[in-house]
Amino acid sequence: MTPLTKRQEGFAPAYAELGNARQTYAMAGYSQDNSLTTQSKEAHKLLHHPKVAPTIRELQAIARRCQAQ
Fold first, then answer.
1. Short-list 26, 1, 3, CA closest to 14
2. What is the value of pTM for the model shown?
């Protein structure tokens, strides 16, 4: 499988930590010139992207394990 892009690499951990897709979309370097609605739609697509979604789940699982300790 091809690796994540730099922006996807920025989006996944930021979302796993913050849980706000639109906000992390902008933080990861995606265009902020679009409307908030467009940013939200594009961020939602990233949450379900075949490479990004498993990465987010993995990072969230790691965070849960760390909190449990």
1. 26
2. 0.87
Instruction: Write the DSSP symbol of residue 49.
Output: -
Please give the Cα distance from 64 to 44 (Å, whole number): 22
Half-sphere exposure of 50 (CA within 13 A, CB side): 2
C-beta separation of 61 from 26 below 8 A: no
Give 8-64 pLDDT, tens digit per residue: 999 999 999 999 999 999 999 998 888 999 999 999 999 999 999 999 999 999 999
Say how far apart CA 5 and CA 17 lie, in whole Å: 19
Closest C-alpha among 45, 47, 9, 41 to residue 28: 9
